Amino acid sequence: MEGDSVMFLDRLPSCVEPTDVDPILASLSEFSSALSYRDLPASTVSAARERLLDAVGCAIGACDCESAAIARSLAGPPARDALSGRIVGSRDVVAADAAGFVNTCMIRNLDFNDTYLPGGHPSDCSGALFAIAPQIGASGERLIAATVVAYEIFIRLQISAKLRERGWDQGFGIGVGTAAGLANLLGLKREVTRQAIAITAVANVPMRATRAGQLSMWKGVATAYAVRNAIFGVQLASRGMTGPEAPFTGRHGLVELISGPIELPPFGTSPECFFIPRAKIKYWPVAHAMQTAIWAGIELRRQVSADRLASIDVQTCWSAWHESGSEPAKWDPRTRETADHSLAYILAWTLRHGEVTPQAFVPESYLDPSIRPLMNIITARVDDEIEKDMPRIVRMRVTAKDRSGKSYDVHIVNPPGHEDNPLSAADLAAKFMRQCEPRLGSERAEAALSTWRSIDNVLDVSDAFDAVESAM
């Protein structure tokens, strides 16, 4: 991919003041084209390192997943070397948009990558950066800066536009964040960045039907599709294609048609201006709202045996109930994607086994009829007090009764991985090793861990991707 070079600003202004016909587009474009590694506080760099490590581990852990295999079978060669992308876990080089699609399929497949409430997985954007960074010889510092751009824009759009609540999927924010992060990685000029974001924004507003009812494989690849489209949007803009002048605030734009007024939190360079440290890293391979369900199940299991229980009442926030406990399909999961979003199944499995691993999501596990009776004594409802605290405080209360009428109460607050209860360096390393060691062997996985833990010291990230080669 060929991009225009740009001289990064010595420092980003403390607050970008949009003055354009579309102030949102102006703000996003300015931030994307101006931010460099030297603008980042140490806490932001550390957060980006951790999330890059986590995303790579998630990709390697799912490198042989079915969705990625399908995507690889369709990935063709690039029209020329400048339009190539690398598939994580191999030296395979294909068209950049295809590589970005494959990479994001792997990152998302286990539902183990990070999340930001309300709803969304910012590391999905990394699929594009992983495809292109090694092809252009980017340094670790450039990869970190581009990652921060993608996260900051995705998260701001998620919390401001509230598309999820209106029935639209997170792919919109992922697409825009990816385009912006990729423009930063390539050093595109502000005007080219503007066109790339505009093209991506106006053409990609996916429906949230992706995440309703009995879930399909598309649940795990919808954002990969957004990433693929964003890469192509950046390629078009790099070649001179122009986009709509006001995709956000103009006539028939996002604000008018879908979101209503949007006020983005201002960009800046002080630590409190960055949202990336608040992206939650998962301890368990399930939807983030279900992390609390697993910890609740572990604690309840310590108090009482599952086979003694007569009823289990789960009180949770609206989003956890709506996505994982409001539909009949979640009490009878028939696909892996439904199972890892089923409150009843995840809680019942934990009560039986004491933990949740990928083994919970193979067909013989989630289709096992013997677990249905336990699931059927579980009810779920929204608790107004818990909802009021969201998203700053994540809670779940489980009240159970055994057959003798004895009550048991479990209350989980901010489970491991929450920004106020972050995973330790040892936790992150263990998670990475669990996913990579079976593919790479112990010695190579340890070496890869060491490299990715200090990715900002790597002069050419090709070396870091070589470290996780041959995972397939």
Description of the structure:
By secondary structure, the protein is of the alpha+beta class. It folds into 2 domains: 274 residues, Orthogonal Bundle (2-methylcitrate dehydratase PrpD); 126 residues, 2-methylcitrate dehydratase PrpD (60s Ribosomal Protein L30, Chain: A, 2-Layer Sandwich). It contains 20 helices and 6 strands. The chain has a 4-stranded mixed sheet with strand order 4-3-5-6. A two-stranded antiparallel sheet has the order 1-2. Helix 1 crosses helix 8, helix 2 packs parallel to helix 18 and helix 4 packs across helix 5. The radius of gyration is 22 Å and the shape is globular. The N terminus is likely disordered.
Tally of DSSP helical segments: 20
The percent range for strand residues is: 5-15%
CATH class of the largest domain: Mainly Alpha
Strand order of the largest sheet: 4-3-5-6
| Helix content class | 40-55%
> Which structural class fits the helix and strand makeup?
alpha+beta
Distance between the termini: 26 Å
Under CATH, the homologous superfamily of the largest domain reads 2-methylcitrate dehydratase PrpD
CATH topology heading of the largest domain: 2-methylcitrate dehydratase PrpD
Give start-end ranges of low-pLDDT stretches.
1-19
Would you tell me the overall average pLDDT? Answer: 93
Query: Gyration radius, to the nearest Å?
Result: 22 Å
- Order of SSEs, N→C? HHHEEHHHHHHHHEHHHHHEHEEHHH
| CATH architecture name of the largest domain | Orthogonal Bundle
Count of strand segments: 6
Number of domains: 2
Biggest beta sheet attributes: 4 strands, mixed
